[in-house]
Amino acid sequence: MLFVEQQYAELNTRYVGMNDKLLEWQLRAETAEAQLHTRQERSSRGANPPLPVTSSSPKPRHRKSAERTTGPLPKHLVSLLAFARGHNVAETKVQTHMNIGLLPVKHGEWTDTDGTGVTLALDGKGRAAFYQLYREVPPFVQWSQCPHQETERSGGKMNL
Questions:
Q1: What is the pLDDT of residues 18-62, one digit of tens each?
Q2: Which of 2, 78, 136, 137 gives a 20 to 30 Å CA spacing to 90?
């Protein structure tokens, strides 16, 4: 029985390693695809440059405001550590994947609704990556009190 448990543990470790590699390659492919798309857009603009605008008053540019990194935790973010605890994923595992770039996180100094300090948070993209990394790795559990809106599988979003 001990031998079987050791073999199972070894296979599980290999499985987790392969999942890590798979997610890493998926993220690399998405990044490469986005870069290719950007290059294609630039080259198509270069072939047919836009006509100059002859307006007497230039239109103001709308800049995306920088995301707030202090104060109350924004509604679209969730505490990384609370999220990991709720889904029964080890904090050390999550931090390792964050440090090697597999788990995209937001850094800040926020306060959660219960007054807890939050320095690491997940947005929608981070929650999707979290789900991809850990959903089939025991002891991952679905969390009935998940502090974010449930998203659908369609549109590239995951059901967490």
A1: 888 888 888 888 888 888 888 888 887 765 555 555 545 555 555
A2: 2
Query: What dihedral do alpha carbons 9, 160, 128, 155 form, nearest 10°?
Result: 130
Burial 86-96 (b: 16+ CB within 10 A, else e): bbebeeebbbe
| Neighbouring residues of 138: CB distance < 8 A, sequence distance ≥ 6 | 12
The model's pTM is 0.51
Gyration radius of the chain over CA positions = 21
- Give the whole-angstrom CA distance, residue 113 versus residue 97: 26
**Which pair of tokens denotes residue 48?**
């047919």
Q: How far apart are CA 61 and CA 3, in angstroms?
A: 66
CB 147 within 8 A of CB 137: no
